[in-house]
Design brief:
The chain is an alpha/beta fold. The chain has two domains: 236 residues, P-loop containing nucleotide triphosphate hydrolases (Rossmann fold); 138 residues, 3-Layer(aba) Sandwich (Rossmann fold). 32% of the residues lie in helices and 26% in strands. The strands form six sheets. Strands 15, 18, 21, 22, 23, 24 and 25 form a seven-stranded mixed beta sheet that branches. Strands 6-9-10-3-11-12 form a six-stranded mixed beta sheet, sandwiched between helices. A four-stranded antiparallel beta sheet has the order 2-1-4-5, covered by helices on one side. Strand 7 and strand 8 form a beta hairpin. Helix 13 crosses helix 14.
Length: 508
Amino acid sequence: MTLLRLAGIKKCFGATAALDGVDLEVRRGEVYALIGENGAGKSTLMNLIAGALQPDAGRMYFGGKEYRPAGPQDARRLGIAHIHQELSLCAHLSVAENILLGAEPARHGWLDRAALHRQAAKILEAFHHPAIAPERRVADLPIAGRQVVEISRALAQNASLILMDEPTSSLPRGDVERLFACIRSLRDSGISVVYISHLLEEVREIAGRFTVLRDGVSVMSGPVAEVKDAEMITAMVGRPVETLYPARPSAGKSECVLEVRNLSAPPAVRDASFELFCGEVLGIAGLVGAGRTEMIRTLFGLIPASRGVLALGSDALPIATRRRKPQEFIARGVGYLSEDRKGEGLALGLSVADNVTLTNFASCSRWGWLNRPVQAEQTTAWMDKLRIRAHNAASPVASLSGGNQQKVAIARLLHQKAEILLLDEPTRGVDVGSKAQIYEAIAEMAATGKAVLLVSSYLPELFGVCDRLAVMVRGRLSPARPIAAWTPESVMHAAIGSEANLDADVLA
């Protein structure tokens, strides 16, 4: 039986058509996947269903009746819960207060805190997360824990339809499996889920049917099991994609541009040594929390080191004797791409042009004054090269899709003329089409002699892009070996193994 039906939905923002005739049908008790590139209209469609936006044309039906919510409160009252990709929690409140916000149990006009904690604990039981106690403050939880609280809040609304926008983007695999078990339980109890994800393997694992959006139009729908990944990708990007990863020759022995010896930054980084050569892509694998991000941030001066030597070319810097600042590394040709694109990777309130030229204003200024036409010209050239979709160079970065925002961050490193690039999760939260373009950019960087250090949680990405690979486990980095010497199984074995086996047969 159909729970939600959309027919000919249109939505424009000025002259831009975000949705241009979308049709969708979700049945009761099913998980329905909505996939497409960044900017395809997925989040806009979710906001329409959740009552945050009003359609310009078309009809929506919910539970067999025409559905015209005046606002999000109407949608919630009817049983529609929306879990945003960007979490919307009250960090200063407790877990229980967030879960039951707006529906707090009361007694004689006063908050019944015991009942509040009891009801929240019952909802949290589904996740088997003992660390997420009802009385714990949300601000003290990791991102994965906050995601669980957001989902629990939707469950507390007794929703019959839950809209999930990239719910696993910040979750380690263990939490993803627990979330999927919860979604299956919801499905089996008759609750419907619309699930947005860029990861096709997740779509296959959790969803029964799907729709592909491209440029605001539904271009493909059907059972997930009957369609190949290549067909989905072609529908998403509008052209055949033979492979996500560009072919490139193996990097031969060349000049060592970065050598790190016995780097330590407790408690996350205990011992890391490696060499990075001109024209190569060196991958760093490992589980979430293994110390990969902390290592790369220490290399850029964002975290103080307790010991270690960092050699840029022939210049050895004892980075523990004094705090090296990011400005010093930028001046020496090092660029850093943060995994937290919105929090610190971009200045969202500034334009595309300001973000691209931020670390190299000297290229478009004179006597301390910024030359706006030159800045716009330089930015437009990078927009064309990296295929950044924005109205123009003056567009605010906040108005761009996630994939285009990530390409703006990469354009800044290229404009900065960085020769050593430290990339932390460069394709997190990015659609398939943008991923392919980012991989092309990385391959081109290496082909022009730049050295790339790539941290990623996605093994296919590491095997498709890297020349050599090292594994981080409990703050210690294994020796780097050619990518052909690894298998996905040996990487995972090393990532979950003991410190002793880092140099043992698992790496042979």
